[in-house]
Amino acid sequence: MLVLGIETSCDETSAAVVEDKVFVRSNVVLSQTKLHEPFGGIVPEIASRKQMEFIAPVVKKAMEDAKVTWSDLDAIAVTNRPGLIGSLLVGVSFAKAIALAHNLPIIPINHLEGHVFSVFLRDMGESFEGHQLWDFPFLCLLVSGGHTELIWVKEVGDYEVLGRTKDDAAGEAFDKVARALGLGFPGGPAIDKVSEGGDPNAIAFPRADLTPTLNFSFAGLKTAVVRYLKGMEERLKRKSNPTLADIAASFQEAVADMLLNNLAKAAELTDAERVAVVGGVAANRRLRQKLMSLSQTQNWQLALPPLKWCTDNAAMIACAASFRMEKGLARSDLLFDAFAVAEINDS
Ligand code: KG4
Ligand code: ZN
Q: Where is 95: in which H helix or E strand?
């Protein structure tokens, strides 16, 4: 089975060809980060105009890299929710046009579901020897720029959200704190880099604990960092002088602690045998390090997709669609719409 995936929900234009549900034959990702950098964040109109400019060459390259023709494909999968509506509409319109022209089934996919399925992706020819194929059910911590959710993934299309952020998403907190620290956009990779060599225990930033729920909150932490920065002049006078690396590392540590705290509780609650951490923030090196040491003391198996599958990509969209097709859960007509806001269970 060969599925072409198309992902244009934000500022990445991506197309991928996935074989037999999980094997990535090609995955092209064109990021607009540099174009939005001067504005300190994503400008929606620029994002959609650039999607329109990039979509055709990106899809063409994905087909060439995979060495397939239109007649080799079994279906087209496209992200139709949630995301920037102008960006989503470009991918959806383009995918519908291809489906119509080549008489192919087209499957709309929820971006969050795509992230969850990134845990299954494998490079072509990657051996399974010594590794068990990932399986259901599993607990999934989805941490991206727009979402922070703990999801109990029972089966394809059967998801229970156990906890979610009540304010900022984890990635959003990284981006806002990076801006306050003058580190530019996107903030996650910048804080990750600057934290190297910093002392994660230099400043005891607050960790929100919303027990008895498994929800998250990052707004208080962000405010605490901003307040701390305002008091810097005083601190410099007193010669108590933490470095930028210390502040970044201490913030990063607080985010990682909050994520790990709820993840461990959710794993206990669900009696999970498998735990996956996916989404852009899962690329964070300190978080990965802490997750790996935590998993060694627990009786669950940890899956941390390689960095290329953590951030937005079309391979995860094609993968989710392939699993849906196999289960007979794939909608396939040209009538579907795109939605800026959607939950993982919205069909
Ligand atoms: O999943 P993603 O590519 O797009 C969304 O669906 O949002 O996630 C993007 C987010 C951004 O907020 C970015 O700052 C964050 O992921 N991010 C990171 C790292 N790399 C990307 N956050 C922390 N550490 C990183 N290394
Ligand atoms: Zn994403």
A: helix 85-102
Nearest CA to ligand 1 atom 10: 145
Among 223-227, 245-249, 327-331, which stretch is predicted with the lowest mean pLDDT?
327-331
Query: What pLDDT digit, counting tens, does each position of 81-94 carry?
Result: 999 999 999 999 99
Ramachandran sector of residue 274 (left: φ over 0; alpha: ψ -120 to 50; beta: rest): beta
Q: What domains sit in the chain, N to C, each tagged with a CATH number?
A: 2-121+309-327 (3.30.420.40), 138-304 (3.30.420.40)
> Model-level pTM?
0.95
What CA–CA distances, in Å, run from 206 to 211, 223, 231, 234? 15, 10, 16, 21
Range 168-192 average pLDDT: 94
Between the CA of 174 and the centroid of ligand 1 the distance, in Å, is 8
pLDDT given for residue 209 in this prediction: 97
Q: State the distance from the centre of ligand 1 to the C-alpha of 71, rounded, in angstroms.
A: 36
What are the strands, taking DSSP E only, across 287-336?
A: 301-303
Distance, in Å, from the CA atom of 338 to the CA atom of 97, rounded to the nearest integer, reads 15
Distance CA 134, CA 130 (A): 12
Nearest to 218 by CA among 154, 284, 145, 327: 145
